[in-house]
Specification:
Elements lengths: L2 H4 L5 E4 L12 H13 L4 E3 L8 H10 L8 E6 L1 E5 L19 E5 L3 H15 L6 E5 L6 H17 L5 E6 L2 H10 L4 E5 L9 H12 L2 E5 L25 H16 L4 H7 L7 E6 L4 H12 L4 H9 L6
Parallel strand pairs: 1-2, 1-10, 2-3, 3-6, 6-7, 7-8, 8-9, 9-10
Antiparallel strand pairs: 4-5
Helix pairs in contact: 2-10, 4-5, 5-6, 6-7, 9-10
């Protein structure tokens, strides 16, 4: 069976970190409204992880998806970090990891075959859904990439062989880790977070060639670059990943926004659709903590963008030719 036959991923997905209280607390009702907006906007791919809110994202997403026909959506989660009781819990919050949830649990790295399988089972329990279509190894370079290649990736391949999941991959913000994993294992998809966007495309140098060589598809995430591309009028004081925006990237944002304005295309629409211009990008996953953001993102995905816009961006050296 070819990789493309194992799982078809919809072109637009929702990354459910926000319903795990990323950056700010959402009530259960607010989280449900976000998920309803995603579904009503036509989104049928949902991605989560134990890391997101120490399991809160999985629990909320699972409760929502249990109300939907199982064959109508694709569901992915992640493995590699298991949740265990925090012996030092003293009533605090997990804000060190940007999640506004009690830190009564802690993340424990586990790349062993048993740990990978147990992590998947624990995610099923939190989700309340037995069938998880796709599982990614989450940020393996933050622990031990060599160990991931030696133990975790073969464990994922075995899960797929055993029929536990339809497809496997890794998710990372680091191009070297993504390319290494693609060349080391028979992966169906890799989630490239913030490394193949309208603003910057370091993954074009190594990840895309590796994926093309191996027949591995790409899911592009963090396509707004921490919100920089989420408005047609970017702000100089916008957050960029974990710090301030470098001057050279700000200049690049300004140039990209000007080209989009010349073609009457909203900058966020170009940001959502740019990755899908590549033949090996299967899906773009967007986040959002408010219903209107989900509705707007779905609208951006449907904007008719003229070929001339991509041609001008390429001619200006702002995207690969």
């Amino acid at each position: 069976m070819s990789r493309s036959d194992r799982l078809t991923v919809p072109a637009l997905g929702y990354g459910a970190a926000n319903v795990g209280n990323l950056f700010r607390e959402l009530s259960d009702d607010e989280a449900l409204a976000v998920l309803n907006a995603a579904w009503d906007s036509g989104i049928r791919y949902f991605d989560t992880a134990p890391h997101y809110g120490l399991g809160l994202s999985e629990r909320r997403l699972g409760a929502f998806l249990q109300t939907k026909p199982r064959d109508e959506y694709v569901l992915s989660t992640k493995v590699g970090r298991r949740l265990r009781p925090n012996p030092e819990y003293a009533g605090g919050l997990d804000t060190a990891n940007d999640f506004h949830v009690p830190d009564d649990l802690q993340r424990v790295w586990d790349f062993s075959a048993n740990g990978i399988r147990t992590s998947l089972d624990e995610s099923r329990e939190r989700l309340g859904i037995e069938r998880i279509d796709l599982v990614y190894l989450h940020d393996p370079e933050r622990h031990d990439l060599d160990l991931a290649v030696a133990e975790a990736l073969p464990a994922l391949e075995q899960l797929r062989t055993d029929g536990e999941v339809a497809a496997i991959g890794i998710g990372s913000m680091v191009s070297d880790a993504l390319a290494t994993a693609v060349r080391a294992a028979d992966l169906d998809l890799v989630m490239v977070a913030g490394r193949y966007t309208l603003l910057e495309q370091p993954a074009a140098e190594d990840v895309l060639p590796a994926c093309r060589e191996r027949g591995t598809g790409i899911v592009a995430a963090s396509v707004f670059n921490s919100g920089l591309l989420a408005s047609s009028e970017p702000r100089r004081d916008g957050r960029y990943e974990y710090g301030q925006l470098p001057d050279e990237l700000w200049d690049r944002v300004v140039r990209i926004a000007a080209v989009c304005a010349n073609h009457d295309v909203p900058l966020p629409a170009a940001a959502v659709q740019f990755p899908l211009q590549s033949d090996i990008v299967r899906s773009v996953v967007v986040g959002g903590s408010r219903p209107e953001q989900l509705r707007q993102n779905a609208q951006f995905a449907a904007v008719d963008i003229p070929k001339a816009l991509w041609e001008e961006l390429a001619a200006e050296g702002l995207i690969p030719g």
